[in-house]
Amino acid sequence: MKKGFNKTPLIISGAGLALVLLFVVGIFSSQNKAISYEESVQQAKSDINVQEKRRVDLVYNLADCVKQYDRHESDTLTKLAENMSKGNAVEDVNTSIAAVAYQYPELKSNENYKELMNELSTTENLIAQYRENYNQSVTKYNRYIKKFPTSIFLDMTGYEKQEFDRTAYEAPEDAPQDLFGE
Fold first, then answer.
1. Could you say which of 17, 109, 112, 134 is the most buried, measured as most Cβ atoms within 10 Å of its Cβ?
2. What is the DSSP string of 106-155?
3. 153 touches 31 (CB < 8 A)
4. Pick from 21, 25, 30, 18: which is nearest to 157 by CA?
């Protein structure tokens, strides 16, 4: 009988190589997914910062707009009162009604205040929504890097648990104040 080639070492070597390759692919796959989650966390944090910047810009711009329109309405009412105090009496009833409609313009500063409050409310709601999204992203990332067996791979490559940014409920020193003051 002819002695054949022994395939056992070749099979063992192939299986060992396949296991090593599977291990390397597992590490890179875990790393790629962790990178994706980490980027989601950073994006969520950036979204919060964008909305907080919008809040500051919005508060100052809208407050200035309302203040300017308030001044315009005040000047209009002052001029109207001055004209009325000069004795501009109207004798005909029809003329009187037309004069009242003409002399008393429609004033809208209350609408500006409503718009200001609506915009601020919308911005605060967006900030709350983005903070919730951030917290969910951090939770998802932290869960992923703690799971077995990815925790072994990711620990070797330096991925660590991320901490939540806690919201400070006291007003910061640079918070907008006295927006309508002179």
1. 134
2. PP-HHHHHHHHHHHHHHHHHHHHHHHHHHHHHHHHHHHHHHSTTHHHHHH
3. yes
4. 30
Which of these, 181, 176, 180, 178, lies nearest to 56 by C-alpha position? Answer: 176
CA distances (Å), 67 to each of 100, 104, 107, 176, 180, in order?
A: 26, 20, 14, 15, 6
Inter-residue contact 30 to 153 (CB < 8 Å): yes
Helix (H) / strand (E) element for 182: namely none
Tens-place pLDDT, residues 47-78: 888 888 888 887 777 777 777 777 777 777 77
Is 70 in contact with 109 (CB distance < 8 Å)? yes
For the chain, what are the domain ranges? 40-156
Provide the sign of the torsion angle of the four alpha carbons 58, 59, 63, 64, taken in this order: negative
Region label for 160, one of left (φ > 0), alpha (ψ between -120 and 50) or beta (otherwise): beta
CB 99 within 8 A of CB 130: no
pTM of the model: 0.57
List of the chain residues with pLDDT < 70: 1-4, 80-81, 83-110, 164, 166-182
